[in-house]
Task: structure prediction
Amino acid sequence: MSVETPARADCEVATLGPCSVESPLAPVFGAFEQAGPVGHVDPDDRVLIEDTEAAVAARDPAAGPPPSFEPARARRTLFFDPTATTVAIVTCGGLCPGLNDVIRGLVQQLRRQYGVERILGIRHGYLGLTRAHRDEAMELSGTMVQEIHQAGGTFLGTSRGRQDPAEMVDALEHLGVDLLFVIGGDGTMTAARGMVEEIGRRGRAIGVMGLPKTIDNDLPFIDQSFGFLTAVARAADTVRAAHAEALSVRDGVSVVKLMGRHAGFVACYAAIAINDVDLVLIPEVPFAWGGGNGLLAQVRDCLDRRGRALVVVAEGAGAEHRDDDEDVGPLVRDRIVADLTDRGYEPVMRYLDPSYAIRSVRADTYDSVYCVQLAHAAVHAAMCGRTGAVVARWRGRYVLVPMTLMTDVPHRVDPAGELWASVLEATRQPTRLDDQGIRIGADGG
Result:
C-alpha cells in the first residue's frame, strides 16, 4: 500500500472514560486463557503498521515505539452497562454487498453476547438523523434481522448528502442513543468525525464507531473492504461474458465499465482474474488517445493480432479527457468506434456496465464471514468506550483505526506497485498508453 506511515500518536484511539462494568463475557476468559491467547485484549498487544525488515531498520530508535494499532477484541470490563445502553445503527452512501450481513451481525452480537435490549435502526442514512426524520427510527429485534443477510442492499435504507453534525447529535440525544454504529465510506466517516467533535464540545458520553464500507476498496489501513471480493467475482463474470462477445464476431470489441471513481482496484482484480483483457484503464494511470502506444492504436493492434479487443475501464479513469459529470464508459466506446470506422475497420462493439447490478447483490460466503467478524470486533471495541474509530482488518487482525487516519489518507492503486505490475503482465499493454510506453514480455497473440 502506497500511503505514508503515520506517527504512533496518530494511531491512538479516543476513549469515553474508564471501564468499570464487568463484561458478560468475562466468565469465559479464564477458559480462553488456558487454551491460548484467543480471549480478551492484552493491554500490551499492538498490531504493527509496517512489517518489513527495511521499515524496522529505517526507524530511529530515539523515536520511541513503532506506529501500531490497538486490536479490537473483547475486554474484561466495559464502559457501557449493556442493560442500560441504547444503541443505534445507520448505513450510508452507495450500496455494497454485505451491508445486511453487518447489520445482522451487530444486532446479534449486541443482543446475544452483551444483552443490549434497545437497538435502533436509523432509516435512510444520515437523513434519518435530521429533525424531520429522526422519529422514523425503528427498534431492531433478533427476529427482525434473522433473514436479512439473504438479500442484497440495506435493510435500513441509505442516502447520500451532507447533514449538519449538530442536528445529527441533537437526534442522538432526542432518541436517547448512547452508542452509534456508522457503516459507510470516506464521506460517511468524515461526517461521523463531525459528530464526534460535536459530542466532545457538548461533553456527552456518546460513542461513535465506524465500520468501513467501500466497494471500490479505496479506504486505507484495510486488508480489503467487505463486499470487495463479491464485487470482483461478479465483475469478472461480466468481463468473461464480454470476452465471449468479442470472440464471436469479426473485429469484435468489448468495453466493460466497472466501479472505481477514485481507485481502480475492482478493474485490476477482475482483469487479472480473467487474464484475457487487453487494456485496463484506471484513475491512477493517465492515458492518451493517440500516439504509437495510445489507447486507439492499441485497440487496432489487438484487432490486427488477435481479431478482437477487450477493454476494462474504471469509472474514474480518463479524468483528463472529460468533464466531471461525463461518463467515461460511453466516451471510450464512442472514440474507439469512430477511430476504427475512420480507418476502414467494421467494428462490432459491445458495451457492458454492470455496476448497479453488482452493488446490489448479496455477499458471497467469504464476505459474509468477514462481515460477521467485523461486526463482532466493532461491538467489543465500542462497548469498552472506544470512539471516533473505525474497525478494520489489518495484517489479518481486527484493529481500531482513528477516523482521522481513515479519512485523511487516500488508498489508491500504486502505478509502481505489485498490483499494477500484475495487470501489465496479464494484459501486455504498454507501461504507458502514449508514445513512451514499453510492453512487458515477448510479442505474440
Remarks:
- The chain has 13 helices and 17 strands.
- The chain has two domains: 8-225+363-408, 228-359+414-427.
- Residues 138 and 248 are 52 Å apart (CA to CA).
- The longest strand covers residues 252-258.
